[in-house]
Amino acid sequence: MVEYQTTAGPNIHIADLRTSQVSDVPNSENLFSPRCSQDGRYIAALSADSTKLMLYDIEKKSWRQLTVSRFGFENWSRDGKYLYAEDYSDSKDDIVRVNVANGKVERLRSLKEVPRGFDPWEFWVGLAPDDSPLLMRDKSTQEIYSLDVRFP
Questions:
Q1: Mind listing the pLDDT tens digit for each residue in 48-61?
Q2: CB within 8 A of 14, min separation 6: which ones?
Q3: In contact, 132 and 82? CB cutoff 8 Å
Q4: Less crowded by CB within 10 Å, the N or C end of the chain?
Q5: What angle do CA 144, 146, 151 make, to 5 degrees?
Q6: 65, 45 in Cβ contact below 8 A?
Q7: Beta bridge partners of 99
Q8: How far apart are CA 3 and CA 25, in angstroms?
């Protein structure tokens, strides 16, 4: 099993959990937020300013730029054909999916009208098992619930 991670360094590292060896992904300087495809063929990453979505082909040992915008929270689709992300460019706040084969960006849903919180963790976006988008939103500070648990 291989684990992909970023460390304090300016690039992406691969940790082989069997051998405990750590190696740099070639030419990954100033990239962060790595996401490995389910089949292990690709690593997606963002440029340091979050404006470039990059794709590393592990077999070919090469990077290519998929698209340019302002991204966050990239997630692989189950079939590995798309990367879903939140796009913050040009005053937009959209869920998009990027075709891995050709880099085409498809806007799926605007999030402008979705109440979001102020905490950075409240802006998280992910995918459900069926590839439908999941996101956190701020419902209200007026609705506070309590749960009493009684153990035997």
A1: 998 999 999 999 99
A2: 2, 3, 4, 22, 23, 24, 25
A3: no
A4: C
A5: 165
A6: no
A7: 82
A8: 12
